[in-house]
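Researcher: Good morning. I'm working through a list of sequences from a screen, and I'd like to move beyond sequence-only analysis. For each chain I'm collecting a predicted structure so we can compare shapes side by side. This is the next one on the list. No need for commentary yet; just the structure.
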Amino acid sequence: MAATPEAPAAVKPDIPVTEQAVAPESPEPSTQEEGKPGKTRWSALFDDWYYAWEVFGIIVSGLAIVSICVVVWYYDDKEAPVWVAQVPGRDKPFQFTINSLLSILSVFGSTCAMIPVTKGLGQLKYLWFMEKDRTLADLETFDSASRGKVGSAQLMWKLRFKHLAVLGGLASLLALAYGPFVQNLIVITIEYRPGNQTALASFTSSYHEGYEFGDNQTPMSFAIDSALRDSSVSWTIPPNLCKTGSCEWPDYYTAGVCARCTDISHLVSRECTPVAGEDDMVGGCNVFLPNGFGFNNTGSANLGAPLSKIVMAVNTTTPPLVYNYTTPLAVIQSIMGYDPKQNAADGSKPSTLAPFSIDESSVLTARECALVPCVQKQRFNLTRRADTSKGQSANIQESVPSLSILDDHWDTWDPLSVTGPPENWGDVYVTFDLEKEIPNVAESIKYGPFGFGRTAYWALRDYLSALLTGYVFTGPLDGTDLTVIFKSGVDTLKSTSATDKAMMSIFLNSQHGNWTGTFCNNTLGTSNDLECAARNIAAGVTNGMRISTWETVEDERRAIDGVTKEPMQICHAQWQYVAAPVAVWLLGLALFIGVVWKTRRAGIKAWRTSPLATLLLRLDPDSREHLRDWQNKGDGELRDLAAGLRLRLHVDEAGPRFVKEEGGATGRV
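Model: Good morning. Structure tokens for this chain:
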């Protein structure tokens, strides 16, 4: 009997893993779970959710922000620290700056702050599919958002800012500003702060230089000449020693000269002669004060030049009309004319002057000023600022002086002896109660009686009298030269070459409105003729007295101790820049709380960014059929394929899996 041939064995076809049926998980609990000790509610909750990394990131990033704020708060308005460490075998030490410290803290804080953000976005992709059926391509959108900034922006755009995941996207994008904002929390500028160098400023209690001034250039005459020319502020700076160029001194007292002035323009009278012909240099007005002081403007005034007209006169010899002091250094009177054709109605002054004479339309001003010995309470500072407009490489500017007269005592002063002729008078002292004005004995002991020595007083008085007696006339001497000509006073016994300069300085600075001195333009108009000149002269004399005291032997020099200021790198907090780190932290915290709550409500585990969870999730048969032959497609084709498949994450006793709901439409959300 022939053997029956055996049927060939059936070949079992290979089925892709994704298409093989997966046995449903048994709902029976594992026997391995039996016998385990019971867990507390909190430990069970922790095991179920397993959010240790998120909690770690929130706590550590919060501590990093607190540390950053503490560092910024501690060094705010203080010198920028530099920590130095010597290393063997290296000449230069390693340096660690506050910016490096903030940079380390910002990197540490931003890294930890992104832990709950990335893991929260990873968890939300599962919760997204549990809400309803979604296109499978959304899985990649959420996954890329948990890995980078571009994906975060795409996710926010897809969700139209209407989902919890938007908080994670915002936090991810704001993290770009985390480091730069932390660096800007502190800005470093170059400022002058108290140092330990020597700072001395001169003062004087008395003045005893007894030589004749004459035409010799002495420190005092130079100080007065500089005050009248008023071409810079250097003449206002008292002698000082300030090694850093920026120093401050406490309020101090010094002997000096004070000026008091009164406007007496209403007392001026004029007698006018009509102008003859077209030449307005013919004719004019004679002007005078009740005490006889005045000038002739109708002729050559003994100058030997035709058509010359006096337009300003200053005098120290006529009787005073206001200040009746017994022994002032000088009582000065002045009359000055202004050409209405060259002075605008708005008060602006001409840049150049043409010859003019005094007529009925001319503006006349008259002043009486008294220069008297006094005691001044002053405050003196030298300020040097650093230009930090181009960063920390600052350009140090020149020192800017600031000298303020806080108070002056001059109303009650008397020579020690006022009886008899002036040549018998003694030293001139200012009545000043040291115990009342300076109750601190240690402070007042450095001051002596304030005043002038007899010889110095009379030498200065004679010099000021000669200096401030003169006039200015105007007119073309040869008919073509329009230069303003000036001449010294008639009293040739007193007048000096300095008188000519003084008269011209007073005239031109007043006519052009050029008075700029510290003691003039703070309270007066720059064209306020004699008053500005008198104030500047008083300040110049006061400074000249201090110069003479300063130019003694250094060990005998009398000076006020001050405080130097040195350039330092100072930190300044800019608290508005803490907004970015705090915003990232708050968004991460809010996202974490929301994810925990939604995960708890959905009843799933915390899979977050784990690739294993995504790998082990199953597809229902319909979905597998839709994705047949996926292994032969590129990532772009896969995205298009996934975009046409709408799935929902379903969790039941058989386990979590993606399912395609009946009647579910395809396409993007």
